[in-house]
Design goal:
The chain is 40% helix and 0% strand. The chain has 163 residues and is mainly α. The longest helix has 24 residues. The N and C termini lie far apart (56 Å).
Length: 163
């Protein structure tokens, strides 16, 4: 390869890099979202979970054993994120057959409660048994750079996802 080939290849690479840098400076939000969309993770197939069977007979009588309480925690799960309700996370790429089977076998939970509207305070409410606002955990903590990005997105004339 000649020196002129490498010279023009270097010049072309520099022009492309400068163009990308200028576009990223002019519209940083779109650039960040473009880079994020290129890094979509692959969704793995479901794995079968094998549960050990319980005892044939109860170990203690109903009055002597603790209450049987089941807590199902599905963080940030919307009604239409379940395949049974016609949706599915990631446009159906993540099926929910085990949750669907609970409803198909006779128990469908149509109402739920969250201690807060966002994930971290809601988790804190579950772990403590208190409203998150009562002990100073009103908001989901985020890095400063992310909060600045959200503020910029809210100031746009053409928001990507209107509130």
């Amino acid at each position: 390869m000649s020196r002129s080939f490498w010279k023009w290849t270097g010049i072309t690479a520099a022009v492309v890099a400068a163009t990308i840098a200028v576009l990223a400076y002019i519209n940083p939000i779109s650039f960040i979202l473009l880079v994020a969309s290129l890094r979509k993770p692959a969704v793995a197939a479901n794995r079968q979970v094998v549960w050990q069977p319980g005892p044939d007979r109860p170990i203690a009588s109903p009055g002597q054993r603790p209450p049987n309480v089941l807590v199902i925690l599905a963080d940030d799960l919307g009604y239409n994120d379940i395949t049974l309700h016609g949706g599915g996370v990631a446009a159906g790429a993540v099926p929910t057959p085990n949750i669907d089977s609970i409803a198909k076998d006779g128990v469908e939970f149509l109402n739920g409660y969250a201690g807060d509207a966002t994930c971290a305070p809601s988790r804190a409410a579950i772990m403590t048994g208190r409203y998150a606002t009562r002990f100073g955990f009103e908001f989901t903590p985020v890095p400063v750079a992310f909060s600045r990005l959200v503020a910029k997105m809210l100031q746009r004339e053409d928001p990507l996802h209107p509130a």
